[in-house]
Amino acid sequence: MRPNDTTHSEETKEFVIIGNGPSAITLSYMLAGNWPYYNPTEPHPNSELHARLVSPGDSESYSDDTNLSSVSLIQRDLDYLSGGLSGRSRNPISILFDTLQHPDADIGSDIPSALSWSFHPDRAISHVVLGSGLPGGSWHKMNDCNNTLTISLGTWMQLPNLGIKQWSCDNKRESRVPLGRVAKYYRDYVRHQNLEKYFYNNSQVLRLEFNEKDNLWKVSYMQDKVGHFTISTPRVVLATGVNEKPNKLGIKGESYPFVIKSLTEFEKILSNLDRSVCNEPVLIVGAGLSAADAVITARFEGLPVYHAFRRHPDDPTLIFNQLPENMYPEYHKVHQKMKGKSLSPDYKAFPMHCISEIRSNRTVVLTNLIGAEYNGINDSTQKTIKVSYVLALIGRRANLDFIYPKRLRAQLLQHPTQPFHSRNNPIAINPFTHECLNAERLYAMGPLVGDNFVRFVQGGALAIANDYWSKPLSLAPKVSSSPEDFLLR
Which spans of this chain does the record mark as coiled coil (predicted)? Predict the structure, then answer.
């Protein structure tokens, strides 16, 4: 049971999951005894995958009369099942789970899930989910965003065995859904699936370290209005996501109060803004979807906009150049403005510009990056603009500062001497178990390992649950003794 006193208390659990977003919720669902099975009633459109699902692999020992549809994926050889699959994830089990949950989704098919679920109460595993807010993680911060739609299809946002339409009792045909509705769905999912006893909400993890004396991980956390607690566990799962800290501009004046770093904060300011004294444009910095949402929000509220971003609008890596126009018309309109093809007196784009300085009188210095270091000659130019607010939406990053020692924190990454990056430098894991390569019985999932879409974060849950049930439970965790000493305790 959850601690209910304000004294220091210590518990023991089989698993501690740090983070309470979609990936953590899915893992909790599986650890609670809910197991997925392949439903061969309608064979999967991938005939090779179907054949592997209904026949054992070389490492699987089943009798000839075993009906493999009665064997859960948690008990199967995931390496064998995931062979030959491709998709928009670097992690093979994420692709496997998504292929089964959303067959042929990337070619526009709307085929029902190939998975069925059964509850096995005798296989429930003792665990706890620690999250700094309510279930849903960073989605809960968007609880009031009812005008901004998800970038992904609504069906791609849902978790196992409870569709969003089923949850909302709403049969409206809509491909995308408001962010606020998704946040409420994740919160309610925990209650609908009877997972509330596993969730310690409003809990801030203070420290994670390995105790060599008892071969257990120690997790220290503070729960609001309750107290400080410690949990001992052989297995910890990092599921914190990458939205904890906004990226910094790294310039003078960044700390002024009129510099904002989240769309939610901007919307709160708008709700109390005196328009009669807000005569200058809002400067929006960034070329991602959050920046586009800010442009849409500001223009909807009648505020003039300056929009500065480093890349060329036709850069193929820009997210707008990867979105179908018919599905995302609002983002296409912003992109047209960024390219100068849709002119507006209240919107001015500054492509290939960066901010050099923010001054206390609300003036901002922009530097033109075109030819800035061409042939060794600095040919950049600068301009100064007057603004009401600066909204810097240049991405966010993970907060792993609770992991000790610092040396271990660095060793977890694929490139230990470089900072964490979800795409270029994620946590290094065994791709079939999601166990960290440099710390046994420490797992990672979701954006920390490069899975940034809800569709794919759920595969990590399958990998971790499968690993638990396939390993001898007497094995104790062991932290890598790799000799990197470039970071000290």
Answer: none
Architecture of the CATH domain 9-243+398-470: 3-Layer(bba) Sandwich (3.50)
CA distance 159 to 182: 11
247-395 has CATH 3.20.20.70 classification: no
Name beta bridge partners: 246: 396
Nearest Cα residue to 242 out of 444, 83, 12, 102: 444
Per residue of the chain (489 residues), give pLDDT as tens. 454 444 456 789 999 999 998 999 999 999 999 999 998 888 888 899 998 998 887 677 776 667 787 899 999 999 999 998 888 788 999 999 999 988 876 676 677 888 999 999 999 999 999 998 887 666 555 555 555 665 556 566 688 987 777 766 665 655 766 666 777 888 889 999 999 999 999 999 999 999 999 999 999 999 887 888 999 999 999 999 877 678 888 899 899 999 998 887 888 888 777 666 578 999 999 998 889 888 988 888 889 999 999 999 988 888 888 777 777 788 888 999 999 887 788 999 999 999 999 999 999 999 988 765 544 555 568 889 999 999 999 887 788 999 999 999 999 999 998 888 888 889 999 999 999 999 999 999 999 998 888 888 899 999 999 999 987 554 444 444 443 332 332
- Domain segments of the chain as ranges: 9-243+398-470, 247-395
Output helix, strand, coil percentages for the chain, rounded to the nearest 5. Answer: 30, 25, 50
